[in-house]
Design goal:
mainly alpha, 434 Repressor (Amino-terminal Domain)
């Protein structure tokens, strides 16, 4: 298993925030969808320690949300073309 370095970890928190904002969701709404607390979303976005269980849930959901956001972004781009 590969270790995630600090720069990659910070990038993941930033990515979560960008996707959340792009999808016009609050931290509370994301927490409800991901099955974690609002505080854990905030901690993750700000590169602070998060329980392993919560981090795993966030990363799994982040991957699927990233794919959804990418699809929406491409659809918007085509509509505005």
């Amino acid at each position: 298993m590969t270790e995630v370095n600090r720069d990659q970890q910070i990038a993941l928190g930033k990515l979560l925030r960008e996707i959340r904002i792009f999808l016009d969701l609050t931290q509370f709404e994301v927490a409800q969808r991901f099955g974690v607390t609002e505080e854990e979303i905030s901690l993750f976005e700000n590169d602070l320690p998060v329980r392993l269980h919560a981090k795993i849930r966030i990363l799994k959901q982040l991957y699927s949300q990233k794919r959804m956001a990418k699809g929406r972004y491409q659809q918007n781009k085509l509509r505005n073309y």
